[in-house]
C-alpha cells in the first residue's frame, strides 16, 4: 500500500489561494452537505473529498468560479452516493413479524417478487433508480429529491413514473409465469 500523497499542482493553485478558498467555503460546504446527507461524518468526508478533487484539477485557469465548481463537485458526490447506495432491507424482526401470518408459499412468492423488483431496479438508469430509492425508501419529497440530485421536480416525477411503470411491468410478468 502506497502512502504517497496525491499530487497537488501548486503552480496553478497556490497554497495561499487554496487555503483562502478552503477557509472561506468550508462552513458553507459542510452546511450544504449536512442538509443533503443523513450522517454528519459523511458530510465531513464529502467536504474533504470535494476540496481534494478541486485541488487535483490540473488546469484551474479553466475554472472561472472556484466556489461554484466546488459546490458542483459536492453535488456530484451526493448524487454518486445515492445512486450507489444499496436498498436497505427490513430488519429481521420486521421480516419475522410480517411473515408470521403468511404461509410458506406466500413467503416464497413475496421473496421471488422482491428479487424481481431488485432486478427491475438494476435495469433502470442511475437517476431513475436514485429517485425511486430516495422517494420510496427515504421518504423524500419531489422537491428534496430535485435539490439532492440537481434536477427539476418535474423530472423527479417523470423518473418516478417511468421507474415504477417498469417495475410494475416486470412484477406482472413474474406473476404470469
Layout of helices and strands, plus pairs?
Elements: H1 15-36, H2 40-55, H3 66-84, H4 92-99, H5 104-123, H6 126-137, H7 142-149, H8 153-176
Supply Rg. 21 Å
Mean pLDDT equals 75
Strand runs, count: 0
Which word captures the global form? elongated
- Poorly predicted runs are 5-12, 89-94
Which range does the strand content fall in? under 5%
Largest sheet: none
Percentage of residues assigned to helices: over 70%
For the termini, the CA-CA separation is: 51 Å
Structural class call reads mainly alpha
Element-level helix/strand string: HHHHHHHH
> Count the helices. How many?
8
Please provide a written account of the structure.
This protein has 177 residues and is an all-alpha fold. Helices cover 73% and strands 0% of the residues. The chain is built from eight helices and no strands. The termini are far apart.
Summary keywords:
mainly alpha; 73% helix; 8 helices
Report a brief summary of the structure.
This protein is 73% helix and 0% strand. The chain has helices at residues 15-36, 40-55, 66-84, 92-99, 104-123, 126-137, 142-149, 153-176.
Amino acid at each position: 500500500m502506497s502512502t504517497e500523497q496525491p499530487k497537488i499542482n501548486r503552480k496553478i493553485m497556490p497554497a495561499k489561494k487554496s487555503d483562502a478558498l478552503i477557509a472561506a467555503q468550508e462552513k458553507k460546504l459542510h452546511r450544504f452537505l449536512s442538509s443533503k446527507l443523513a450522517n454528519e461524518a459523511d458530510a465531513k468526508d464529502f467536504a474533504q473529498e470535494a476540496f481534494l478533487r478541486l485541488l487535483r484539477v490540473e488546469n484551474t485557469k479553466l475554472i472561472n468560479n472556484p466556489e461554484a465548481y466546488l459546490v458542483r463537485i459536492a453535488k456530484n458526490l451526493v448524487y454518486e452516493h445515492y445512486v450507489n447506495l444499496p436498498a436497505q432491507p427490513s430488519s429481521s424482526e420486521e421480516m419475522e413479524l410480517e411473515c408470521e401470518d403468511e404461509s410458506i408459499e406466500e413467503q416464497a412468492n413475496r421473496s421471488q417478487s422482491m428479487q424481481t423488483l431488485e432486478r427491475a431496479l438494476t435495469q433502470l438508469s442511475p437517476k431513475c433508480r436514485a429517485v425511486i430509492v430516495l422517494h420510496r425508501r427515504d421518504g423524500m419529497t419531489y422537491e428534496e429529491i430535485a435539490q439532492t440530485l440537481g434536477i427539476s421536480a418535474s423530472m423527479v416525477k417523470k423518473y418516478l413514473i417511468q421507474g415504477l411503470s417498469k417495475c410494475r411491468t416486470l412484477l406482472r410478468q413474474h406473476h404470469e409465469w
